[in-house]
C-alpha cells in the first residue's frame, strides 16, 4: 500500500495531515506512534477510506483505494476502532457473522463459506467456546477479541487496529499483542496499528512510523526509530533505551 503526499485538514486552517508519504509493506506489522493529536488516527482513517484527504492518494495493488467499490475494498482491508458500540444482547457468533456482509450478495449467499469464515475467525481469536455468549457476558479483553474476530471474518489481507490495547489490563494487553503477532505470522495478515505504548511498539512491530504535528518525523525498524533524542523531541520526555539479550530493546521513561 502506497500513501502519497496526503494532506487533510478538518477545519481548512491547519493541516492535520501535512504531506504524509509512506509505504505499508505487505505481510509486515507497521505501527504508528506519536503524541496525542499528532494525526495517527486520522492517518489510519485515510488508509481505511473513512476520511478523504484534500490532496494526495493511497494506492493498493496499483489501484487508487477510492476507485474500489465498497464491498471490494472491505475484502482487502478491515479496521477495528478503539470504541465500538453495539447492542449488548447479541451473541458473539452473530456479531462476528456481520463481518461476512461484504461477501454476501442480495440473492446469492455461500452459507458454507460464511460459516467456515466465522468458525475460523472465532478459533483464531480463541472465542469458539464463547460463541453463544452475549457480548455483555464477556471481559474487556474478550470483547476486544470479538471486534478482531469480526474483522477477520471479512477475510481481508490488511487489518488496521486503532489503539487495540487501550482499556485493557496488562494481561489482556499482552494476550492481544500476541494475537496480533500470531495473525501476522501464521495467517500472513498485514497489520497497521496505532499504539501509545512505545515498548509494545518496539516489541511487536517490523516497522514504526513516528508522527509529530501531522507529519512523519521518521520511520524504520523499531531500534532505528525509537531513540532517546527523538523521544525527547516528540514527547518532551527523557528516556533511557536499553537492550537486554533475553528481553530485547526497551525504553524506560525517566522524567519530563
Ligand atoms: N472529526 C474531527 N473534526 C475536527 N478535528 C478533528 C477530528 N478528528 C480529529 N481532529 C483533530 O485532528 C488532530 C489529529 O487527531 P487524531 O485523532 O488523528 O490524533 P491522534 O494522534 O490519533 O491522537 P490521540 O493519540 O489523542 O488519539 C487533533 O488535533 C484533533 O483534534
From TrEMBL:
The terms under GO molecular function for this entry are: ATP binding; ATP hydrolysis activity
Instruction: Quote the SMART domains the UniProt record gives.
Output: AAA
Domain of life assignment: Bacteria
Tell me the PROSITE patterns matching this sequence: ABC_TRANSPORTER_1, ABC_TRANSPORTER_2
Q: Name one GO cellular component term.
A: plasma membrane
Q: Name one GO biological process term.
A: iron ion transport
Location(s), subcellular: Cell membrane
- Membrane topology annotation: Peripheral membrane protein
Which CDD domains does UniProt cross-reference here? Answer: ABC_Iron-Siderophores_B12_Hemin (cd03214)
Q: What keyword terms does UniProt attach to this protein?
A: ATP-binding, Cell membrane, Ion transport, Iron, Iron transport, Membrane, Nucleotide-binding, Transport
What positions does the domain ABC transporter occupy? 1-238
Q: Would the keyword Cell membrane turn up in this protein's UniProt record? A: yes
SUPFAM superfamilies referenced in this protein's UniProt entry, alphabetically: P-loop containing nucleoside triphosphate hydrolases
Q: Which PANTHER family match?
A: FERRICHROME TRANSPORT ATP-BINDING PROTEIN FHUC (PTHR42771:SF10), IRON(3+)-HYDROXAMATE IMPORT ATP-BINDING PROTEIN FHUC (PTHR42771)
- What is the name attached to this protein's record? ABC transporter ATP-binding protein
Amino acid at each position: 500500500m502506497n500513501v502519497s503526499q496526503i494532506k487533510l485538514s478538518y477545519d481548512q486552517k491547519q493541516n492535520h495531515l501535512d504531506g504524509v508519504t509512506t509505504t505499508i509493506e505487505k505481510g509486515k506489522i507497521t505501527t504508528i506512534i506519536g503524541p496525542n493529536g499528532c494525526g495517527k488516527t486520522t492517518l489510519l482513517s485515510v488508509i481505511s477510506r473513512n476520511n478523504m484527504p484534500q490532496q494526495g492518494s493511497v494506492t493498493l495493488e496499483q489501484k487508487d483505494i477510492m476507485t474500489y467499490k465498497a464491498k471490494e475494498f472491505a475484502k482487502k482491508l478491515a479496521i477495528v476502532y478503539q470504541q465500538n458500540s453495539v447492542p449488548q444482547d447479541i451473541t458473539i457468533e452473530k456479531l462476528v457473522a456481520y463481518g461476512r456482509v461484504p461477501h454476501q450478495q442480495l440473492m446469492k449467499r455461500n452459507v458454507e463459506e460464511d460459516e467456515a469464515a466465522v468458525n475460523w475467525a472465532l478459533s483464531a481469536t480463541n472465542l469458539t467456546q464463547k460463541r453463544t455468549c452475549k457480548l455483555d457476558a464477556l471481559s474487556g479483553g474478550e470483547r476486544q477479541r470479538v471486534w478482531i474476530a469480526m474483522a477477520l471474518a471479512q477475510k481481508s489481507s490488511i487489518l488496521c487496529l486503532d489503539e487495540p490495547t487501550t482499556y485493557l489490563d496488562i494481561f489482556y494487553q499482552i494476550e492481544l499483542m500476541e494475537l496480533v503477532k500470531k495473525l501476522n505470522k501464521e495467517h500472513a495478515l498485514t497489520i497497521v496499528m496505532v499504539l501509545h505504548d512505545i515498548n509494545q511498539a518496539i516489541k511487536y512491530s517490523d516497522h514504526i512510523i513516528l508522527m509529530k504535528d501531522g507529519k512523519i518525523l521518521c520511520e524504520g525498524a523499531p531500534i532505528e526509530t525509537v531513540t532517546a533524542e527523538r523521544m525527547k523531541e516528540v514527547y518532551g520526555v527523557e528516556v533511557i533505551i536499553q537492550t537486554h539479550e533475553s528481553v530485547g530493546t526497551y525504553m524506560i521513561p525517566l522524567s519530563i
